[in-house]
User: What shape does this take?
Amino acid sequence: MDAEHDTALPPVSDGTINLDGRSYMPDAKGALVPLANVRPQDKLQDQTVRKMMGFATTLRDELRRFRGHCFDDIASFQELISEKYGASRGGAKGNVTLTSYDGTMKVIVQVQDQLTFGPELQAAKELVDECIDKWADGASDELRALVNHAFQVDKEGRINRSALFQLRRLEIEDERWKRAMEALTESIRIVGSSTYVRFYVRDDPRGRWEAVPIDLASA
Assistant: This one.
């Protein structure tokens, strides 16, 4: 196990500071408030937050170690397969699926590219707009909505990638549209990748797979 797997923050403190035999609690502005002057409900709220944060940081560290062990185990298995057969069990971009012998459990490793879009995207938008204007009444409301949705920027400044890729799948025999899709394709930049491990179980080999959630929202 490498050092990254065991990275952890110090334990959560009780929030008090002792100076010259007196106890204080720093407030959000950095001022030291004598413990006796802190309202009981504020103390209780602080204690509640710190208790939950203590459990949360411990769980986070356990998940980090678990994730590290998973990748180590998968890498070791793939090395054994590669040594035996001279080939990896993994698929494109490092994706791999491992299944239990009885077919009731599986682990999926997925590598997803992190994308951004270059200046060609603006050229694609202008060409698409020209197509819509040219077609006028010939452009359906659904297509107009999809185009508007695709090039819309959210509050974080992100383009709707799914809608953009939907545009690329449309079969439209218009030279200007084809140039727009070419510009859209050339605008795509791969700036990194993220690796995910997902777990699934089912009651029998013919049953439906159910995800094993490893996050609070799905637990």
